[in-house]
Design brief:
The protein is mainly alpha-helical. It has a domain at 5-43: Histone, subunit A (Orthogonal Bundle). It has three helices and two strands, in the order αααββ.
């Protein structure tokens, strides 16, 4: 496939570009070079399997545990600088 003058004019119109004749010529040459590279790549028999995951290992998830040591919880609440009852006040993060 090659971009001729008519296809280039159509692309420029669709993209709503205003190009000089020199820019149109350069644009056409660049697109044709890109297409030739793509055709070369497509002609190669790379025989590469699709990549499913970049990691060779799986995530190691652990079960959630409920922290029930009330003595430590009470010490944390007691020593927290800004609190309202048993609720801890922290700065707003946006």
């Amino acid at each position: 496939m090659e971009f001729d003058k008519e296809k280039i004019e159509n692309l420029i119109k669709l993209a709503r570009l205003e190009l000089t004749e020199e820019e149109k010529e350069k644009f056409s040459n660049d697109l044709n070079k890109i297409l030739s590279y793509v055709e070369k790549i497509q002609s190669l028999d790379l025989n590469v399997e699709p990549l499913i995951s970049s990691g060779l290992w799986m995530n190691d998830f652990r079960e959630d545990e409920i922290f029930l040591d009330q003595e430590i919880v009470e010490k944390i609440i007691e020593n927290f600088p800004d609190k309202e009852g048993r609720y801890l006040k922290v700065p707003k993060v946006l």
